[in-house]
Amino acid sequence: MNTFAKNIAAAIAAAASAACAAAPVKIACIGDSITYGTGLADRASQSYPAQLQKMLDARFPGKYEVRNFGNPGRGIYLDSMRGAEKRGFRHMPEHKAALAWKPDIVVCNLGINDNGEYIKEYAGGRKLWQFRDDYIALLRDYKEAVPGPGPRIAIWTKLAPLAEGQRFWRSPEPFLMQDDLEAVASATGADRIDMQEPLRENLDKILAADKIHPDAEGARIIAETVFRTVTSPQEVRECRRYAAYASRDWETWLCAGQSNMQKGWGEFSATPEEKARFKSEMERLAKVRVSFWDFATGEWKRLTPGNAAAKCAFGVSFAIRRAEKTGREIKMVYVAAGGAPTESFLSEQVMCAVDSSGRPVYPHLAAIATNRRRLDRNADFPCAWVAREYPRRRGNKEEAFWWPVSALYDGGLKKFAETQMPVDGILWYQGESNATRCVPPEAPLDGAYMEETLLAVMEQFRRLWGGAKVVVVGLPAMDRPWAPYRAAQKKVAGETGAIFVDTFAAGLGDPRDVHPRNKIPFAELALKAIEDVGGVR
After folding, report:
1. Average of per-residue pLDDT across 6-17
2. Which of 107, 133, 201, 456 gives a 20 to 30 Å CA spacing to 19?
3. Residue 284 within a domain
């Protein structure tokens, strides 16, 4: 190529580069009145899309253009009516205008206005999966409107909270929707936005008098949350998936619970006797093959005497003996946190489950979940100790981070289930935070509440790993009124086909210590209970 031709080519390339640099990234905010900015004194400057534009301009001048395509009262269902007109956003001129604009990014917050209609999918008054299907169809309009792969899409998979006094404050629907919203995100490759947690922290301060529309400060929090999503790389929700081969030569066990499941052998090796016990366990561990799931890397790691001290003592001792008994590798998954109540292991969808008439299956749990408050400010949560301790421990990421409703489900159970790794058995050693008020004067909690929490846990495990055998470790002997909870554990285990390990009848426990220091008898009793029913397969 001669010099003249090279100069022309360089000029064309420079012009094209300049043109590309000059074209801002177009962000279309579609949705209902929360996007529109209903109730704000100055919608043009205070709505979340307007505040998002300001934030982007301050950080990336000229790089982004945000437009507000909100329309109050709109939802997902195409056949839902608002008076004489259809409610669905897909029918609206804002939808058509957003499509014509051909955005690079679409942020959608629809769902709140489908309350009242969504429950009909459960009660038989509406086609099952219609919400999911109509939402996917809406987002596919945008994928088809823009050449190539289409725009990047982000949807609110956990909707903005409703405050006490709002019509749908106690409705289970926004929580039941979460499964469908997750499915929509998966089907369309959309990023997930959790708008519940950012807004719940200051719920009483950031909502207008109608208890649903955020004020300017609430809109700012929404804008900040969306800002973090649109300026971060596209979320790629891929995980290594494993096939459940019948010929696999290992067993996978889930260890779930609170402090008696969480605490490692390193915490029970203070006295000479305990040190000798720990040494003996580690010598036995070195002779078998035990692995644990590393949530940080998404891989199995060999459990060795060098890294076992911090892993749960109960689970380690169980794995050692199970490996010795079967001659197989034992793979362990640990999802446990000190003080965590059962509610942190439950998805909000399970807590808010309804029957065919639309009534709550677990009324106590539904009240807790629909309160929309953290446990320390949740008047429906019965354990006063957790409510008291939660604020004090909130700075401790090793403990308090896992106490909110569904935290251990979202960060542990669900995360592992997404790998589709088979689970043979589940060791459930939990209940101290759900048996009594945990503050003087000690008294058992409502018996119906106890049974609800246990039945909900069984349902959660069934949904995630239907073929796994569940082993319920009963609360041990201690000078606390745990007898009603032990009775509930035994009753629910019998009703659901789980194995109940009666530690109290076996004389295990310490009357003065909630954390019995020798976990070996507990592990051996669990193994015997499993063998008595013929194993797990």
Report:
1. 49
2. 107
3. no
| 255 within domain boundaries | no
N-to-C CA span, the chain? 73
Q: 218: domain range?
A: 3-230
* Residue 239 resides in a domain: no
- How much is the pLDDT for 239? 62
209 contact partners, CB below 8 Å, separation of at least 6? none
DSSP code at position 29: E
pTM assigned to the model:
0.89
CATH of the domain at 178: 3.40.50.1110
For residues 509 and 421, give the distance between their C-alpha atoms in angstroms, rounded to a whole number: 34
How far, in Å, are 241, 279, 281, 355, 433 from residue 254 at the CA level? 17, 24, 20, 29, 20
Amino acid at 345: F
Dist. CA 88–CA 96, nearest whole Å: 13
> What pLDDT score does 12 carry?
45
Environment class of residue 19 by beta-carbon count within 10 Å: exposed (0-12), middle (13-18) or buried (19+)? exposed
Rounded distance, CA 277 to CA 309, Å?
12
CA angle 258, 261, 267 (to 5 degrees): 110
Q: How many domains does the chain have?
A: 2
Residue 291 within a domain: no
Which band of pLDDT confidence, cut at 50, 70 and 90, is reported for residue 417? very high
Q: Which of 211, 230, 249 is the last residue before a domain boundary?
A: 230
Pair type for strands 299-302 and 290-294: antiparallel
Count the helix, strand and coil residues of the chain and give each as a percent rounded to the nearest 5: 45, 15, 40
